[in-house]
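Sample entry (349 residues):
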Amino acid sequence: MRRDPALAIAGVTKHQYYHRPSGNARGRKASEVTLRVVGDDVERVPNGEVVEVIKGIQEDPDTAYGYRKMTAALMILGFLINHKKVYRLMRENLLLQDRVKKVRRTFVRYRKVLPLGPLHVLEMDIKFVWVAEHSRHAFVLTVIDTFTRAVLAWEVAYQVKQHVVKRVWQRVISTHLQPHDCLNRNLRIEVRNDNDSRFVAKSVQDFFAENHLNQVFTHPYTPQENGHIESFHAILSQKLRRYNFWSLEDLEQTLILFYEKYNNHRLHGSVLNLPPMLFWECWSMNLVETAIDEKKREMKHHLKIPYHQLSGNMSQREVPCPQPKTLDGFEDENEIEMHGAVTFHQPSV
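Predicted structure, serialized as tokens:
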């Protein structure tokens, strides 16, 4: 068969048929010199000298730049060079910095929370309160249940670091999640929080994963995705703005009384105008009926009995928690210290 018909059948052009690879890489060869502006002149500098300049800059730990900042540093020194060439020179001479790995985060899927029961969706956040003694802010970390609006744990300190966050959640696990046997019930617990560095920390994320808690992060500038704790902070601010706190102890004592009153006495409009712990008790006794609109992601509660019957069955002054221990603090007053009347210690998970 002649050449042209054979190439036509094979779908190969003449150029492809006669092409012989040279064995070299495609494109222009890498340049061996770099232009540098010196006064009114432009010099050709060997790449080896450029590498030595890079090494000199990296000798100082404060200027151990990556290839992009190194490009800017070289340009300031007069080199006419782009980031691609700097990357190649640093890679060939093993001068590249280790890539910084960002901690991966799982963001919330829905703006509006739709918990189906207590302990399904929990939220946490930190509030700043000014303390005059040391002229600095104290941090108040609070964890709430979005279904009942009950405060599950809290802590106040001048510093809230990663171990403090884990300690607070250890109390949530021991005082609420374990007594309700959430793990054996295969209850998927979602923990919502913003992008505070203490919450993003890998050790905190690992802690939640080890304890089967699904931590999700709100998107930046969207406080409505963490709306329950933000609403609670508005209530807390209304309380604290009446006072000027001299010491952390003053703030702590005020918070102890406030959290106990919030959980067991103060009526909350989102939970049938009941105190959060009383609402939780009614829910546990099947006295609350809930209608859920998944399309609008809204829920409405209805109390199955008249309100006046609540006074005969339970007291709003000392509401029992649906757990082995009460949360009013009278069972063991020694436990009511820094963390308020709603927390107590049990073995960790």
